[in-house]
Amino acid sequence: MIKFSKERLLNSTVVAGLAVVGMMAFAPTAVMAQDQDEEEATEVDELVVVGSRIRRDTYNSPSPVQVVTREETVLAGYNSTTQVLQGTGVTGGSSQINNAFGGFVTDGGPGANTLSLRGLGPSRTLVLLNGRRVSPAGSRGSVGSADLNVLPTAMIERIEVLRDGASSIYGSDAVAGVVNIITRNNIEGITFEGQYNFPTEANGAGDQARVSVVGGLSGDRWHISGSAEYYNREEIALGDRDFTACNTDYRLNRATGQFSDFIDPLTNERKCYPITGTGSNGVTINTIGTSSTFGARAAGVPSTYAGTFNRWRPNSAVTTGLVGYEGVGATGLNLNIRDTFEPRILNRSLISPAEVATVFLEGAYDLNALGNAEVYGELLVNRRESSQTGYRQLSLDYNRGSLLIPANLQFSNFLAPQPTSQPGVNVGVRAFIGFGNDTSTQENDFIKYTAGIRGDFLLPEWRYDLNVSYARSDSTYTFESFLTNRLRDSLNVVVAPVGTRAELTRTGVLPTGLTGTVTCAVNVTNPSANCIPAPFLTSQTVGGVLPENWKNYVFQPVFGNTMYEETTVTVGIDGPLFSLPAGQIMAFLGAEFRDAEIDDTPPLDSINNNLLNLTTALPTRGTDSVYEVFGELEIPLLANLPLAQELTLNVSGRYTDYDSYGDDTTYKVGLVYTPFDWISLRSTYGTSYRAPALFEQFLGATSGFLNQSSDPCNNYDAAGVFANRAANCASEGLAPGFTATQGITVFSQGGAGTGALAAETSSNFTAGIILQPSLPTFFGDLSIAVDYYEIEVNDGVSRVGSGAILSRCYDSTAADFAADNGLCRLVERSTTGSRALTVRDSYTNVSTDIVEGIDYNARWTRELGPGSLLANLSVTQFLTQASQLFADDPLDEFNGTIGAPEYTATADLSYAWDQFRVRYGVEWIAGQDSYEYVGLSGPSDYVFDTPDYYIHNMSVQYAADEFTITAGVRNLFDEDLPSISQGAYNRIGNAPLYSGYDYVGRTGFIALTKSF
User: Fold this and answer.
1) Which of 29-33, 336-340, 363-367, 958-962 has the lowest mean pLDDT?
2) How far apart are CA 521 and CA 500, in angstroms?
3) Strands, E, within 483-619: which ranges?
4) pLDDT tops 80 at residue 467
5) So what's the pLDDT on residue 707?
6) Burial readout 564-587 (b: 16 or more C-beta within 10 A, e: otherwise)
7) Minimal CA–CA distance to 351: which of 993, 1007, 948?
8) What is the mean pLDDT of residues 110-130?
9) Phi/psi-derived region of residue 290, left when phi > 0, alpha when psi is between -120 and 50, beta in every other case
10) Entry pTM
11) Which residues, in sequence order, are bridge partners of residue 436?
């Protein structure tokens, strides 16, 4: 954290000076106010740089720190603090969870935006606001990290980024680094701000708008300041961008250079949204499934084909075979002529919308007592309303013999009983229907109070600070789902008795010998059930034309609530111990108590397993507390000597005692050595201890499913190379060639109570050099910093994964398997019926993560003509990005693969004169290659590499005394997004799902401020 003894804010010149003196890594967005003198830096008496709690009058720090100022974020076109923190300049190219992930299962729930430094995950990155923790926020059971949406934007003065482990200084989750957001204070007057970002795509969509007011008052002994702001981000749907308008397999014929997207032989058009390009797989709609039968062949089927069909689509021209239907799914044919696309798919969210309202207040009052004490406080209130539009299919299972099935399909016996079938009744016909769009919403209310007192301590030059914070995140989340019990009731129909209410009946063609209408059987036995019968199986039904009253009956919104609370009490004292020849030894001593509680109550239908084809989820409830004491020393060993302008040692340590996982100690040692004025060397080594997050401990069991082919005993070979597997399958009474007929149920849950979860540990090493050569005046000023880092996390808290659990269990020795040892404790096979498997995938300590790399930073400034020229360059090079699931596994290196680039860089050039400033910036993400990583020896028909990716930004600013106007363009050349093949990575359209890519496209922006 940074704290100033003077009341005035540190201006941008001083921030630029931090980079000049080489004590920090240089931000690509570092700012220099060229019209002010560097001498203004002397107005700062003492400060505390993030990564240390020691007050000092120099900027020296053994840890690399990046500073991003609010002025430059405006010039770069960012419209929120979230966008700044998730930009390449801060993240170094590591993938982040943002508004493009709304359709995926993520920690924090849909709509939450989190920050991960060094690619080690948001639970290992600590976010601070004015040096104090920002508590987790979000929805659903996996809330464990700060949601960047809660942070103010208009009130931000600057952002400090420590890319170094700091658990001994800030606590257990500061493994990969710390981000500290510093707000403005002691503001006089009122300033109105507004910014509008508008994509230039012809079909628009995706506008962002922010309006805010910032103001403050002060008296002789008090001040209060704050901001109120509203931010709105509009939705971008898949249909709003060309690259998502037609998702294909994207397979490349290397010989012809043509993409082998599937062409429907009936329409001669490219098919959108296939999965594998084969006739046996894919997202398929507007078809039915029956037991195999002969039928009229579809176009593209060889005339010599003598097999049978089990998938059909309506065709009124077919008058032989299965009248009204043509076969589209046939044994032994490699066809994909089923429908896989309909226009409503393009209504899905590419970038999900959000509305965010934030109020931030801070103030202080001088007591003139208790050591010239000052009482202070902060209030942060935030509300986020976010939503996501999805697309749903419906597999509608008609009971065999149902009155809703037409006569020509009554023969069919398609499947064994399903969840929507009547007990013991098979499925006669399944209709694969494109149902339409669904909506998920989140309303998240976040509030954080802080109150404290600080002043002079008993000893000379010593100070104390005591503060208490309370934060609460309260989220209500809603999503729509088919209710299994209502579908079951609606599909079980009988001939309606005389007098049945018309709105509870359905008219259609009944089997021979029957007349009248149908109603739900439950309406006869329970007239108050108000069940709406399912539609008759017709071509319209198969095509997705469904009765509105039935859709409203079976497809319902369900509601859940997530509460996360955290209380923190922190006390610290700091000051000089005694003097050495090189200077004073400075010390900090502190203690902290934190208590956190999570309470997620999913929808009742989710708890009761009543959501069709969706996971079940049980409540997540748990608490944890931690007591910590910590200290830090800064020892000046040498100063102002030949070959030793400075040699300073920094040591820190922390004792941590969790209620859940016991105690441990962490430490950090840092050294700064300056042999000459123009060169400094710095290095740190530290350890971390991270107790599992509450959701990792207490996540309620959430069900999922694997295909039956994932059963290790499915079609096993007794004489095959997997001898252990064969023996273990046989020990369960399964014969060679056993065919699994039922999917595998997977329960994911927290690790508390399993006896297999402990805190994770890690180590962090950095070493850097700072160069500030003395150059001729005409050349200007140049500063260069190069920092090496290595982080290794051991016993990482993670879920093993159901596939790994099954394979390792069944490939274990017969003795371990029989004793139910190791991962076999998590596997259970039923002893009757289909012999189905159940897997419990709990959080446990298994993984090792290693990140190694080099940060290069350079800053150059020169007077030129009537103004000043400033250039910044920041490059991140990953040398290693690797993980290891088990100790006997090989280290899995994924550096340079898709989503984990080896190199990223940001650069900007700005020129300021008089009241004007012009900026040009470039962001670069190196090309990525995943062929070897996914198991391919080289390029094939799959495309698993991406080219270099560039984003160019340009802006101009005019600043008068009371107003400022900034205008510019982000992604100036509307860079094309890379495309990859389906099959190994999550995609949006044909592009990889990766936060480093700009899905919005070229965007203009204009920002205005007006002060009074």
Assistant:
1) 29-33
2) 11
3) 493-495, 505-506, 518-520, 555-580, 583-601
4) yes
5) 74
6) bbbbbbbbbbbbbeeeeebbbebb
7) 993
8) 95
9) beta
10) 0.90
11) 392
What average pLDDT does the chain have? 88
> In this structure, which amino acid lies at residue 381?
V
Using 50, 70 and 90 to split pLDDT, how confident is the model at 303?
A: low
CB 336 within 8 A of CB 364: no
* Residue 33 confidence (pLDDT) above 70: no
Residue 359 CB: number of other CB atoms within 10 A?
Answer: 16
Q: Are 279 and 333 in contact (CB under 8 A)?
A: yes
The secondary structure of 355-389, three-state, reads EEEEEEEEEEEECCCCCCCEEEEEEEEEEEEEEEE
- Cα angle vertex 107, ends 106, 113, to 5°? 80
The burial of 154, by beta-carbon neighbours within 10 Å (0-12 exposed, 13-18 middle, 19 or more buried), is given as buried
Q: Which of 463, 456, 459, 457 is nearest to 48 (CA)?
A: 463
Name the nearest CA neighbour of 402 among 412, 390, 392.
Answer: 412
Provide the pLDDT confidence category of residue 59 given band limits of 50, 70 and 90. Answer: low
Q: Is the Cα dihedral 750, 756, 759, 765 positive or negative?
A: negative
Chain CA centroid to CA 497, Å = 54
- Asked if 167 contacts 174 with a C-beta cutoff of 8 angstroms, the reply is yes
| Whole-angstrom distance, CA of residue 395 vs CA of residue 21 | 66
Contacts with 204 (C-beta within 8 Å, 6 or more apart), sequence order: 198, 240
User: In this structure, how many other beta carbons lie within 10 angstroms of the beta carbon of residue 593?
Assistant: 14
Task: Please state, in angstroms and rounded to a whole number, the distance separating the CA atoms of residues 366 and 256.
Answer: 78
Taking the C-alpha atoms of residue 78 and residue 66, their distance in angstroms, rounded to an integer, is 18
| pLDDT reported for residue 887 | 79
Res 337: pLDDT:
57
Evaluate if residue 731 carries a pLDDT over 90.
Answer: yes
Q: For the chain, how many residues are written?
A: 1012
Q: Specify whether the CB–CB gap between 398 and 542 falls below 8 A.
A: no
pLDDT tens sequence across 323-349: 888 887 665 555 555 666 788 989 999
What is the pLDDT, as a whole number, of residue 379?
98
Q: Residue 362: name the closest of 476, 452, 293 by CA.
A: 452
Please enumerate in sequence order all residues whose Cβ is within 8 A of that of 257, keeping only pairs 6 or more positions apart, or say none.
none
Nearest alpha carbon to residue 931 among 1001, 874, 983: 983
Give the separation between CA 1002 and CA 990, rounded to whole angstroms: 19
3-state SS assignment for residue 124 = helix
Helix pair angle (802-810, 723-731), 10° resolution: 90
Task: Say what the alpha-carbon torsion angle 725, 726, 731, 733 is, to the nearest 10 degrees.
Answer: 120
The angle at the Cα of 759, spanning 758 to 763, to the nearest 5 degrees, equals 140
In Å, how far are 14, 127, 337, 663 from 919, measured between CA atoms?
20, 29, 53, 51
Distance CA(721)–CA(724), nearest Å, equals 9
Contacts of residues 892-898 at CB distance under 8 Å and 24 or more positions apart, as own/partner, are 894/933, 896/926, 896/928, 896/929, 897/928, 897/929, 897/930, 897/933, 898/928, 898/930, 898/944, 898/945, 898/946, 898/980, 898/985, 898/992, 898/994
Beta strands in 200-344 (DSSP E): 208-218, 222-233, 236-237, 252-253, 258-259, 287-293, 309-314, 325-330
Is 376 in contact with 468 (CB distance < 8 Å)? no
Q: Which two tokens stand for residue 766?
A: 């950095």
pLDDT of 399 strictly over 80: yes
Any idea which of 155-159, 332-336, 709-713 has the lowest mean pLDDT?
Answer: 332-336
The tokens describing 875, both together, are 């490059």
Q: Are 69 and 15 in contact (CB under 8 A)?
A: yes
